[in-house]
Amino acid sequence: NCYRLQLETPILSDVTEFKGLCQKIQAQQRERREVPDELFQQAIKIYSSNFLDDCPEDALNWVEVERQHLGALFEQMADLYSAQLCDKAEYYRATSVCHEILARDQRMEAIHRRLMFCYGKLGMGHKVEQQYRLLCHIMEREFQSKPSVETTRLFQELKTA
Question: Of 1, 72, 137, 154, which has the fewest Cβ atoms less than 10 A away?
């Protein structure tokens, strides 16, 4: 009562490729080595949308579990990459990466915070305020809440700097 496929080559999917890239990045970090930009860029590029986004949430529970897992992995990789760029004082590149990430998921508060930080380092106070206001709007619309205390504190520090 089953079918079996006997393939000569492995099945390729964006999910397995994304997970493989994440494992490589995590292995580099465990070894305390700087992760090459190319690995981060490939991981961000391949995560084009949420897993089976067109599948209704309540249809199959395993889909939602995998969607949450992959989304959390993407958020972790995005945060690590933008942090690595900031650590190297590559603030322009970091802002570009942050914008690319937010284009996929604008609800990632940590990335908004990193973007505000970069704008502050680049002396773009007006962009800091603009980003904070945008985040406030997104948080209100999506979650009926305000940005975290950490984000608000950073905004206040950057505003007075």
Answer: 1
CB-CB contact of 95 with 130 (8 Å): no
Q: Which pTM was predicted?
A: 0.77
Mean pLDDT per 10-residue segment, the chain (161 residues): 81 86 93 92 81 64 79 87 94 93 88 96 96 97 95 94 76
> Is residue 131 a contact partner of residue 115, using CB atoms and an 8 Å limit?
yes
DSSP 8-75: SSPPP-HHHHHHHHHHHHHHHHHTT-PPPHHHHHHHHHH--S-TTTTS-TTT-HHHHHHHHHHHHHHH
**Phi and psi, residue 5, nearest 5°:** -100, 135
